[in-house]
């Protein structure tokens, strides 16, 4: 099925809709903008963090959709409003809900559990109660704003109960769910005291999307084991005759947007300025991450500092620029991480730096897209080494910005992006010696070899951009006519 230019397949304006009811709704924990309270008490809006927003906003704008989400601070109810071509429907969270639903269950229980226990998850029953209450609020908001027969696309681990809650309220809707982070194997997921409720929540969707096929398989296996439904390959057969499909849809970036940005004179000039300010090093290594313990920042900086200490690299001609975007700062594990990185950077620069030549240039800050594009253009070696990552859009953004076809990408094999960017210099982020060897290899590789790899990766990123991702998901959600109707499961199930 092919879509009319500029529209998303499966989404059409319904004749019966009221003016406020939308035909395509995204339900995500965050609105694409955060409300910021200034010192004088006035409020303003700024783009919210995370890859999800940059991934979905263009698709939503083209389809006059509504976006339901949290404005990013504890606060009062707010009316829906228009911003930059989107209808935004704020869902309010109280102080207690920010602590229990967002910082607690979402980011101190689910986040570490779904990322291979990169930190120890905390299980608290009151956090779970808050997760249920807040998910119900999002489901109510979606039900109230959806036109008859609308398509609702629920996003990510914060809202896994919404699909079933929404189906209960509005059986007329097509409901899709997409998980941006990894879905763990049964052995890990089964630790969760509320495992069955989460699986049943997700089964409210018609289509459950994951980054990788392994995650979809983990989900189907868990549904069979823990809920007891019949399954066959990517399909779950519910007792009431409904079917749910679980498939992989690797997310991507606004490739053209990044290419245009990288081609602009301002960005090129800024890239040159960055290199000059760093003393025109021969090799500029770059890391850009949310400050998160899954990202492997500490191990990567340690590997780099050892290369200098061992004499393989010299601060006169190599520097590591690490940007760490502040994130979830009230969660203990994140506070601890910040202290650990501060301490490591201080020690490395104290021990190995020279006047005007730090080994690591560390920026704990978030930057606009233009500055990111300039950094991508300025870097010789991009180092992306998460212990576990659903996809990692930074790796794809770097590739999109390398308009001249040069630049090396060192990439963890445990990032979802490694499935597609096979020509990156792949590393095991737990293996410090392996990372050292590969970072060195990437920095010394022949330009021809670097270009060969980058060419292949650029082809992948330009062919599979974020609109391809969104339209593939929405086509699959709208397609499969048999999945709209009740059906019996086939004789042969697994
Ligand atoms: C990841 C998650 C997103 C989240 C983003 C930023 O990319 O998959 O759902 O929005 O991190 O995290 P935050 O907690 O600030 O929303």
Automatic annotation (TrEMBL):
Instruction: Tell me its family.
Output: Belongs to the glycosyltransferase 20 family.
Name-wise, this protein is Trehalose 6-phosphate synthase
Q: Which InterPro entries match?
A: Glyco_trans_20
Q: Which GO terms describe its molecular function?
A: alpha,alpha-trehalose-phosphate synthase (UDP-forming) activity
Sorted alphabetically, the Gene Ontology BP terms of this entry are:
trehalose biosynthetic process
């Amino acid at each position: 099925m092919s879509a009319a230019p500029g529209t998303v397949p499966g989404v059409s304006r319904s004749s019966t809709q009221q003016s406020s009811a939308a035909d395509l709704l995204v339900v995500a924990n965050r609105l694409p903008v955060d409300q910021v309270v200034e010192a004088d008490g006035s409020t303003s809006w700024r783009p919210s963090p995370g890859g999800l927003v940059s991934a979905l906003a263009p698709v939503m704008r083209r389809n006059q959709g509504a976006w339901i989400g949290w404005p990013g601070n504890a606060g009062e109810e707010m009316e829906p409003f228009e911003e930059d071509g989107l209808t935004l429907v704020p869902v309010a969270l109280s102080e207690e809900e920010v602590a229990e639903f967002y910082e607690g269950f979402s980011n101190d229980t689910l986040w570490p559990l779904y990322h291979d226990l990169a930190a120890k998850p905390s299980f608290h029953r009151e956090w779970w109660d808050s997760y249920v209450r807040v998910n119900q609020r999002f489901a109510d908001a979606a039900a109230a704003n959806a036109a008859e027969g609308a398509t609702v696309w629920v996003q990510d681990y914060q809202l896994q109960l919404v699909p079933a809650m929404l189906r209960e309220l509005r059986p007329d809707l097509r409901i899709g769910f997409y998980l941006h982070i990894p879905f763990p194997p049964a052995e890990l997921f089964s630790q969760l005291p509320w495992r069955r409720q989460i699986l049943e929540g997700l089964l409210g969707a018609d289509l459950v999307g994951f980054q990788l096929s392994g995650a979809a398989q983990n989900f189907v296996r868990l549904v069979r084991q823990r809920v007891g439904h019949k399954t066959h390959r990517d399909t779950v057969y519910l007792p009431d005759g409904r079917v749910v499909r679980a498939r992989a849809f690797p997310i991507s970036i606004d490739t053209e947007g990044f290419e245009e940005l990288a081609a602009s004179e301002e960005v090129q000039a800024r890239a040159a300025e960055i290199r000059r300010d760093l003393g025109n090093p021969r090799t500029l290594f770059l890391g850009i991450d949310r400050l998160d313990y899954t990202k492997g920042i500490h191990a990567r900086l340690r590997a780099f500092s050892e290369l200098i200490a061992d004499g393989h690299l010299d601060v006169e001609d190599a520097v590591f620029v690490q940007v760490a975007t502040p994130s979830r700062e009230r969660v203990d594990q994140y506070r601890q991480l910040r202290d650990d990185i501060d301490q490591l950077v201080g020690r490395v620069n104290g021990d190995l730096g020279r006047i005007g030549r730090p080994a690591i240039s560390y920026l704990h800050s978030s930057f606009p897209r233009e500055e990111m594009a300039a950094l991508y253009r300025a870097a010789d070696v991009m180092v992306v080494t998460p212990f576990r990552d659903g996809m990692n859009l930074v790796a794809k953004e770097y590739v999109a910005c390398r308009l001249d076809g040069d630049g090396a990408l060192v990439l963890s094999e445990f990032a979802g992006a490694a499935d597609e960017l096979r020509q990156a210099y792949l590393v095991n982020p737990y293996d410090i010696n392996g990372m050292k060897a590969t970072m060195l290899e990437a920095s010394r590789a022949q330009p021809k070899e670097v270009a060969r790899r980058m060419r292949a990766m650029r082809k992948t990123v330009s062919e599979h951009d974020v609109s391809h991702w969104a339209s593939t998901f929405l086509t699959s959600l709208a397609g499969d006519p048999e999945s709209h109707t009740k059906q019996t499961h086939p004789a042969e199930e697994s």
